[in-house]
Write a structure and sequence with these properties.
The protein is built from six helices and three strands; from the N terminus they run αβαβαααβα. The protein is an alpha/beta fold. The chain has one domain. α2 links the parallel β1 and β2. The mean pLDDT is about 95.
């Protein structure tokens, strides 16, 4: 937050790391702090489209970004689809007042309809 509020910061917006509905407390804290400290920069929050609960894939991804593997596995095992899981994260961000969201890892061949399904 201090970095984003620096007077000499030469930026028009910021991107967050990938977050999910499993990170709600941390995202709530960040958003509240941004409001309290009157951060005026536009934020774009990241969401990752987890296609499956493949342990090999989740372990590989964890080398690059935080992966809530146990939670994702439980959601897939409960019958949720990849779209439904992503929708939960997007909905959480919207509930917290986040307006700008990017979704990573959409399947190339069906990116547009998949994104449409996520954003309802």
């Amino acid at each position: 937050m201090n970095f984003l509020l620096e007077k000499d910061a030469a930026t028009d917006f910021f991107l967050t790391q990938v977050v999910s509905h499993h990170d709600r407390a941390a995202v709530e804290q960040f958003v509240a702090t941004a409001q309290q400290r009157q951060l005026s920069l536009t934020g774009v929050f990241g969401e990752f489209f987890y296609r499956s609960a493949s342990i090999d894939t989740l372990e590989f991804l964890a080398r690059f970004l935080p992966v809530p593997a146990a939670h994702l596995t439980a959601e897939f095992e409960a019958g949720l689809t990849a779209v439904q899981i992503c929708v939960r994260s997007v909905a959480m961000l919207r509930q917290l007042g986040v307006k700008n969201i990017y979704v990573s890892n959409l399947p190339v061949s069906t990116a547009a309809p998949t994104l449409k399904a996520i954003l309802f």
